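Please, structure for the following, as tokens.
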Amino acid sequence: MTQSTIGLTVAVAILSTFTLFTVDRFPTVPDKGTDSARQDSKEHAHWNLADLSDSLVSLQKSELVFMDEKSMMGTFVEVKKGEPFRRKATKDDLYYFHSGTCSAKIGKQKKEFSEGEILYVKEGSEFTITDAKEPLQIVIVSMKLSSNSARPIWKHFSKSVTESGRDSSENSWNPFLMHSNVMLGLYMLPREVDGDGRLVHEWQELNIVTKGSSKFVMDSGTIDVAAGSVFFVEEGNGHYFDSLEDDIDILILWEQRNVDHSKY
């Protein structure tokens, strides 16, 4: 499969799978000391979780809003071993557990979470970590899913679910959470393919690298990305992955409430 065919396949998958499951402009950080954690241009922004962790230390805080866009807000949280954590979702929340393990409650239900897993928590629901068995680093992305009272209060995605469909010989796209205005999936690129074709979207996009490293080439510039990299791409900013140093996995989130899907 050629890179152009792969890029087309991913684009078709993105534009043809909007069925259910499943706040403004450029990033702002309310506290001094976090600007050093952000690298950006007008059309993209780039953070590293290690730098955000350093910012929390300097601010003597446990959580930090690092991104506030018109379609999504990003919060970075660290929970020390043995400490509790509680958060009520004021919008729909997506949790990415970057490191650590814990026991938690969503409403009255109990669940174990570990590194690499994803959790969806519905607006108005409360998530409580009752036992952080190891230090935790969590990225929380908040957004507003279109109205649907039938949505579950929460949904857990294990690594076996998010990594389903991996193919060592070609790039694989697994959209495991799909909603009329939101899509979240894992993009898995093997080193031997060495990248993908240029794509341009009509919506804002957030990427979180969960493993591997490469260059990420955009119309607005090129950045080096690796596990722990978080980068936001503005709508209309063409981009592709290139020069893979090893296999790379990227969580990709789109919020598409302003897109007319009828033409696709």
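The chain has three helices and 20 strands. Residues 1-36, 258-264 have pLDDT under 50 and may be disordered.
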